[in-house]
Amino acid sequence: MAAKARLRSEALPNDQLITLLRNMLLQRAVDTRGFQLNRQGKVAIAMGSEGHEAVQAGAGMAFVRGRDLLYSYYRNTGILLACGFELAGIFRSQFARATDTTAGRSIINHVTDRAKGIASISSIIASQCTHAVGAAYALRYRGEKDRAVLCTFGDGATSEGEWHEAINFAAIHTVPVVLLCENNQWAISTPLDRQMRNPNVAERAASYGLQGVCVDGFDPVAVYQAVRRARAKAVSGGGPTLIEAKCYRFLSHTTDDDERTYRTREEVAKQRENDPVPRFERRLVEGGVLSAERIEAMRKQVTQLVNETTDAVEREPFPSPESLYTNVYAGPTDPWAG
Ligand SMILES: Cc1ncc(C[n+]2csc(CCOP(=O)(O)OP(=O)(O)O)c2C)c(N)n1
Ligand SMILES: [Mg+2]
User: Fold this and answer.
1) Which atom number of ligand 1 is nearest to the Cα of residue 127?
2) Ligand 1, residues 49, 55, 188: which to mutate, most atoms within 8 A of Cβ?
3) CA dist 151 to 59, 71, 128, 208, 319, Å?
4) Strand, helix or coil at 153?
């Protein structure tokens, strides 16, 4: 009963709660598949967002499709999907097919979709922050109404000079950007206490004259509400907000990394107790939103969708050898000709 009341007081209709859960289940299925495909030797590398599902489902739901711009990073398949990016596109990138948004040229998850407002993902940590703030400045400069930029980055990114330059510029010029830190406690093998003495990224906002908000990154509703509020503030001329969502990276950094070499099993097990997916499932069951059977059916449906999409994309062609220099040189170029 208490749980029901709590869910109601959050003022999110059931269909939105179900959308959040579906996105979280989809993220986990995509992650699992990516790691399997790598172990099968079918994709060169995979990256997992496991532990970030709630952050990404919540933030993606606050993104207004057709209006907002997304500047995210490589660990953001869930945000991409929640912002309307095509599921097949994720696998086209993993399989490096000709149909991929960079025609198989980029490392996995480095996709783009201009029509949907999804900017190209860059491997250079924090570079998306300066791009995002520049785009938000352009929106304001052109007087575009009800449009904002969502910029996401990891805790490690906040050690980069570019991050500081971006947030400072954004604050000075009051640009419509929401800065969301997915604080998963690790930057590959570097723990948080080797990156910063104050573990609360949100508290840094004050030094730029901004509002900082810290949310439970295992709670998709809390993240959604924080990002939605920050977006509303941004589009009404209130400027940027720095949101820190505390989460965890359950898997290795990528399939090329082995997290067992630098962190204890006890630490990971402790974080697993709060795994955002089963936690949100329990909350929806206790709140009377979904039955355990319905959730199981959703999980099966999402896994089937991922499997079918993977199979279909695997049949798509690789880029042709003749296209090797396409988009590499301006104009027709044959580098081998004298
Ligand atoms: C400028 C720069 N420095 C270093 C790297 C290598 N690198 C790739 S991912 C990564 C860790 C980033 O950690 P964080 O920002 O916390 O994101 P997470 O992977 O934990 O989500 C590093 C150091 C890079 N890509 N770019
Ligand atoms: Mg990190």
Assistant:
1) 1
2) 188
3) 10, 5, 7, 17, 31
4) strand
- Say if 208 falls within a structural domain: yes
Buried b (16+ CB within 10 A) or exposed e, 260-298: eeeeeeeebeebeebbbbeebbebbbebebbeeeebeeb
Q: How far is the CA of 183 from the centre of ligand 2 (A)?
A: 6
Grade residue 194 by pLDDT with cuts at 50, 70 and 90: very high
- Whether the full predicted model's pTM is greater than 0.85, yes or no, is yes
Q: pLDDT tens digits, residue range 37-56?
A: 999 999 999 998 999 999 99
Q: Is 87 in the pocket of ligand 1 (CB under 6 A)?
A: no
Residue 329 banded pLDDT, cuts 50, 70, 90: confident
Cα 207 to averaged position of ligand 2 atoms, centre (Å): 22
Residue 179: inside a domain: yes
Residue nearest atom 7 of ligand 1, based on CA coordinates: 125
| CB of residue 328 inside a 6 A radius of ligand 1 | no
- pLDDT per residue as tens digits for the range 205-223: 999 999 999 999 999 999 9
> Quick check: is 125 in a domain?
yes
CATH of the domain at 291: 3.40.50.970
Q: Is the CB of 217 under 6 A from ligand 1?
A: no
Residue 54 domain-assigned (yes or no): yes
Q: Is the CB of 60 under 6 A from ligand 1?
A: no
Ligand 1 proximity of 28 Cβ (cutoff 6 Å): no
Rounded Cα–Cα distance for residues 192 and 186 (Å): 6
Our count of domains for the chain comes to: 1
Range of the domain at 75: 2-317
